[in-house]
């Protein structure tokens, strides 16, 4: 399990702090690609997103105790 944090910068917008828990690690480039939009019909330009303060930290997942009749 990985905890991913970054600051997302979009042109014409304010910076946004973003946090996500993921089963697989991401790179900064993969994160930028995830939030950028390709050019669509009827639109004039693509939307590019840049990412700063990117961190991908491996964390240990905590297992919840099972519920049921045979739990000790």
TrEMBL record:
InterPro entries: DUF1187. It comes from the Bacteria. Pfam families: DUF1187 (PF06688). This is DUF1187 family protein. It comes from Buttiauxella gaviniae ATCC 51604.
């Amino acid at each position: 399990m990985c905890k991913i944090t970054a600051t997302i910068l979009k042109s014409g917008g304010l910076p946004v702090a973003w946090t996500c828990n993921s089963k697989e690690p991401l790179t900064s480039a993969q994160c930028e690609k995830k939030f950028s939009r390709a050019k669509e019909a009827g639109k004039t330009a693509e939307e590019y997103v840049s990412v700063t303060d990117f961190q991908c930290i491996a964390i240990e997942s905590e297992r919840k105790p099972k519920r049921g009749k045979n739990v000790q």
